[in-house]
Amino acid sequence: MFRAALLLSSVAVAGLSACSDPAPAPATEATGQPEERPEVVVAPITKAESIDAGLKVGERVPLGTTLLTKGDETTLAEILENGPAVLVFTRSVEWCPYCQTQLKSINSIVDDLKERGYGLYGLTYDSPDQQDRFSKNQMLQYKMLSDQQSSVIDGFGLRDPQYTEGRAAGVPYASVFAIDQNGKILAKSVSGDFKKRPTNEQILALIDSI
């Protein structure tokens, strides 16, 4: 089980491309046609880019800290009553295109994780309304959790210390945690580079290694 946190680096797969339509680009002076913007690509994480941050495999997560969903409050203790969970920490559904790409991509492995006995959850510091708008626009099949005060992020020890002010203050490292029904961490991946995240194949390989 404890080797699971290391396995992620051995899975070689392609990067993920953004799948939403980009915002309209400004027109060029010469042609009057919109400029083409490059796609946002999330590269696979490697062993060298995985950092030893946050709670360790075998430790227990903060079960009682309040999280928000659209129109409701919950805790990790309540979430885990439904079974083991894969918790994906990302920066923002509003302004981080790498996070948006990842959150849209993992929508395709909801059933794969369910077959393995895990529920999938995304967590950001955005408001429930912002998350709900993103979830509906992208037709997400998993629940988003709002940690507006970064209390759960801090409880996991995942706050990115390079951001002390501005809109990014309080964001977590891009991370994936597998948690059993009792709140014990079974496996994890924490990226030191927000542009690089575990691919879907890497997430499934992490779960299969437990």
TrEMBL record:
PROSITE patterns xref list: PROKAR_LIPOPROTEIN, THIOREDOXIN_2
Family note: Belongs to the peroxiredoxin family. BCP/PrxQ subfamily.
Signal sequence bounds: 1-25
Protein name, UniProt field: thioredoxin-dependent peroxiredoxin
Keyword terms: Antioxidant, Disulfide bond, Oxidoreductase, Peroxidase, Redox-active center, Signal
Function of the molecule: Thiol-specific peroxidase that catalyzes the reduction of hydrogen peroxide and organic hydroperoxides to water and alcohols, respectively. Plays a role in cell protection against oxidative stress by detoxifying peroxides and as sensor of hydrogen peroxide-mediated signaling events.
InterPro entries associated with the record: AhpC/TSA (IPR000866), Peroxiredoxin_BCP/PrxQ (IPR050924), Thioredoxin-like_sf (IPR036249), Thioredoxin_domain (IPR013766)
Organism: Parasphingorhabdus flavimaris
Entry keyword Lyase: no
Membrane-spanning intervals of the chain: none
EC number: 1.11.1.24
Limits of the Thioredoxin domain: 55-210
Superkingdom as given in the UniProt entry: Bacteria
The reaction(s) this protein catalyses: a hydroperoxide + [thioredoxin]-dithiol = an alcohol + [thioredoxin]-disulfide + H2O
